[in-house]
Amino acid sequence: MSIVGVVTLDDGVFANPTEILHDHLQVPQFLPRTAWPTADAAREMQSAKLDPFNLPLDAASSKALFEKVLTMYRHLAPMPPFINNGLSYSGIPWFLHVAILHRLFNGTFGTHRGLSVMEVQCLLAIVSYGTHESVAFIKPYRVKGLPDASMPRTKPNTFEEVWNPTYDMPTKLGGFHDGNEIRGSEECKRLVWGRRFIVVPIIYGVNDQWGMTVFDRFSGDLYIFDCADDELKTQRIDSCIHFWIEFWNALGMAKTFRYFVGRVNRQPSVEDSSLLCVIWLMDLLRNQVGRRISSLDEGAIRQDKDVCEPDVRRPLQSSLHLRDWVPLGCQAGRTSLMGVRRIIRILICNELGWRHHDIMNRRYATWQGATMPSPWDLLSPVVEQLGRHGNQVDASIFWTGLGGPQFALAMKTAVPPYSSDQNRRHYHIPGHERHLIETDHRTLSSTRPWTPPWTQNIVYTPSRPITRPLPAVHLRVSNLVPLTETNTARTRNFTVRLTNTLAREGYEDLNQPLVITFDRIQFRQDRRDGFHLRFALSVSVAGGEPVETEVIIPVGEVPPI
After folding, report:
1. What is the DSSP secondary structure assignment for residue 478, as one 8-state letter?
2. Percentage of the chain with pLDDT > 90?
3. Nearest-angstrom CA–CA distance, 147 and 155
4. Are 456 and 252 in contact, with CB atoms under 8 Å apart?
5. Through-space distance between the first and last CA atoms of the chain, rounded to whole angstroms
6. Over 50: is that where the pLDDT of 493 sits?
7. Considering the chain, what is the average pLDDT of its residues?
8. How many separate helices (H) and strands (E) can be counted in the chain?
9. Of 104, 135, 382, 414, which one is least surrounded by beta carbons within 10 A?
């Protein structure tokens, strides 16, 4: 089931008055390499052995690794985004990017362990190609304190949290994985300025459970990808919400936003979560085909988070199109994970120039006997047209049923045809028979040494907390139901639903009904003052502490004894 809600803070938007938010159009599944090495050179790179290395690198190790990669990949042209900034992109030098991907393909995938932070960041750099003006990628954030059975804990089923006087509520604790806080800094302002989407990967606790968050500044929507089990789902969602409240407050934009957690299949294991985050993000920001989720969807759960008084309660619908991480043509479970791994392997082969790797050329036959094209069969026509038509391809091969051109699919799966009836963010415009795929290094990356003219707004602190105006209270009973099936000879039970007649529209009903229990009922008559009724009263949403009392019920004039 999907989970949606509103986080109520101040009114306002997530852009400065002079800021223009950039968006991107339809892009390919990933940026196709246009400069390929010869067959002999590709096979040499593919079979080369890379000695183990540990991160971060010291000066000597960095020099040795640079020289090794330079020798191994001397015939490989860097991908265009790296060319414009001194062979560095997204803060990662080209030689290190190549070394990490080489080790990921030949090492990590063979061990079935989870991806490291740097491996995830290299894959996210690839995902970002062609969207760098509209998407800001922030380093991963780690939430503290998964439950640990070996240590006594005050709240064994929650992440670490502390009372936060800035918002008058408890918030989850955490920090960026490298220990450097950038929220509200000049670096953060440069990263965010002009970009519609902000991406922050989330790591929960110490067992490397990964999640992904994407904030759409234009619509004020937060998207949370969570593929773990249900036990701590609410805690994980809360930790993401708390992060983004703090993120925007540090920039002076503690504004109301909506959040959407789409329904997805559960991960096969925690070690797979990082890969699934990458695939989900590719679908959300590159392929952009899926369905918009709504608070009115069947089974959808709405959980609003009111830091301040909420406004009128309205239905919610996401601005972006979401889909599950399970690749097309796969069933949930291990077969779907095989499909994910295959897609990532093909992406890496494109990045490293491994044109002749078996995974790039193998064709699979379906159960019906049809032969599916290999990844190179899908990639080569696009590469050919890019070289022939000045970075443009025919609309007939650009638009597909999965978004733009698709090069990596699960085994025995064909690319579905484009349809204008699909749920997708971008559609082919009739008459536009060519579509640009940007491969020029001069437009695929940029640096921002300047400080943007960020408007100075209120940043809330413990000494200057955000106000929490609460509505006036005037309660009335809207529904009372006797629970006769739980009654005994000395017990009576009721549920009462209360309504605050002064609350905002849509928020009048209290979330949970009250349970009222009269227990240990005793009744006796006294001729002097009437009937004596003694009982224990409990009022709460679940049980409550009983309070014993005795009341006298008068019956009029009682003759003297």
Report:
1. E
2. 66
3. 8
4. yes
5. 69
6. yes
7. 89
8. 13, 21
9. 414
Among 237, 236, 257, residue whose Cα is nearest residue 245: 257
**Rounded distance between C-alpha atoms, residue 374 and residue 90, angstroms:** 31
Which pLDDT does position 556 carry in this prediction? Answer: 58
- Which of 226, 129, 246 minimizes the C-alpha distance to 181? 246
Give me the mean pLDDT over the 190-215 stretch: 94
Identify whether the C-beta of residue 184 lies closer than 8 Å to the C-beta of residue 456: no
CA-to-CA distance for 208 and 211, rounded, in angstroms? 10
Cis? peptide before 452, omega within 30° of 0 = no
CA-to-CA separations, 62 to 74, 397, 445, in angstroms, rounded = 17, 42, 24
Helix ranges (H only) for 353-499 are 358-361, 375-388, 395-398
In our burial notation (b when 16+ CB lie closer than 10 A, e otherwise), range 371-394 reads ebbbbbebbbebbebbeeeebebe
In this prediction the pTM is: 0.84
Q: What is the pLDDT of residue 469?
A: 65
Q: Which of 533, 534, 536, 528 is nearest to 553 (CA)?
A: 533
> Residue 59: helix, strand or coil by DSSP?
helix
Q: How confident is the model at residue 505 (pLDDT cuts 50, 70, 90)?
A: low
Would the pLDDT of 555 be above 70? no
Between 52 and 125, the more confident residue is 125
Quick: pLDDT tens for 417-434.
Answer: 999 999 999 999 999 999
> 493: which 2 tokens?
């039970």
d(CA 125, CA 277): 13
At 498 the three-state DSSP class reads strand
* Cβ–Cβ < 8 Å for 46, 354: yes
71-100: pLDDT as tens digits? 999 999 999 999 977 899 999 999 999 999
Residue 205: partners with Cβ closer than 8 Å, 6 or more residues away: 142, 143, 144, 145, 146, 159
DSSP 471: P
CA distances from 320 to 260, 292, 293, 529 (A): 10, 6, 9, 71
Sheet holding 492-500, edge to edge: 475-482, 492-500, 514-526, 530-540, 547-553
List beta partners, residue 220: none
pLDDT (tens digit, 9 = 90+) per residue, 283-318? 999 999 999 999 999 999 999 998 888 877 889 999
